[in-house]
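Re: the request from the purification team.
They wanted to know what the chain is likely to look like in 3D before they choose a buffer screen. I agreed to run a prediction and write the result into the notebook, where they can find it.
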Amino acid sequence: MRLNKSNILAELNWGIILLYLILVGLGWFSIYATTYNEGQELFDLSTHYGKQLLFIGLSIGLIILILSIEASFYERFSSIFYSISLLFLVGLFLFGKSINGQTAWYSFGSFSLQPAEFVKTTTSLAIAKIMSDNLFDIKKLSDLRNVLIILIIPFTLILLQPDFGSAIIYSAFIFVLLREGLSIQFFSAMLGILLIFISTIKYGINSTIIIVLLVVGLFFYYAYRKQALFFRRNWPFVISSVVLVFVITLTSSFLHNRVLKPHHKDRLALWLRMEKDPKKVRQLKRTYGFNNDQSIKTIASGGLLGKGFLEGDRTNGKFVPEQHTDYIFSTIGEEFGLVGASTVIILFVLLIIVIILRAEKQKSKFSRIYGYSVASILFIHFAINIGMVLDLLPTVGIPLPFFSYGGSSLWGFTILLFIFVKLDANQTNVL
């Protein structure tokens, strides 16, 4: 039996909605502070904050539309949404607009649309659809392969734009797979490959092979001490592990030397503290590390309580390039200090925790998996962006959800979040 539709407002999770409104509001004030010029009107569409107000208004319309549609609609047509979104990604190579070397936007006059921001939602729906099937078993290689294919296709198309920042977001789905029963050994293997890649770049092929073989050797020795026949029974695994170490290390070296572009290498070198020459370090900080260097100085200048709204001299002086987009968090740090920056972090953490708690309470497996996808994507965006701004991670160009300027980013996150709000409301709206 379906309850009266007028009850939908009572069934909505207003905690999630309130956190969304607070974050979007703080984001707009940050954009206003970053791009404000005295004498300009509040609704001036020639300004970034004026356009962002328009984007926020249209987001409200999107929310109303999403909540007015039956929840079953999103599950029923998830495959179609996914397929259409892939077509939009492919279309970029024919009709896309190139900005800063990336063909990632469709241009409509003074406005641009970035499909990658919406594909995260359609991929989440597709993953939830395939994994919620009663016959799906993530421990079966064929089922896991199908899930990985769904992830690899948009990842590859986005990487070819090339947009490494948007592509890396698909690593978020590892948390979804782990929640649904993926072996922890698979996650450990992926983490090991990443560590080998970083080690190869920083220490070279020979040192990395020696280090990894020592670690693997200690593991095998421990296994031998527990089981004397370990090598006799597992020799194919032992041999393949050693071979795999060599393959991964050589592949990592090839990717770094032949695939990554010079600016990617320089950013990695700066992040991994590989350059020892002080002059070269200063040069790198003035070029590829300039944004990070200025961002850290801007945040540090805010102190404990900050300089006050519109009082950030480094923000007003435009010291941080593109501060209204990927580096918007530095505005919070300067104008509201450690207290303000910590508050924003707490708000994001609360939102992610609430989504996970609600996902765990879903009666529908589809809704639970989608909820975990939403939480994972928000976490990766939030963690990488702030890590990048604080120079804890290399610059990869990832927006801060609900804060960074841009219609595509705001609408993409709004759609992603409010589909889950609708699914969550539906579980108690259907008896």
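For the purification team: The chain has a mean pLDDT of 88.
Please add any questions underneath this entry.
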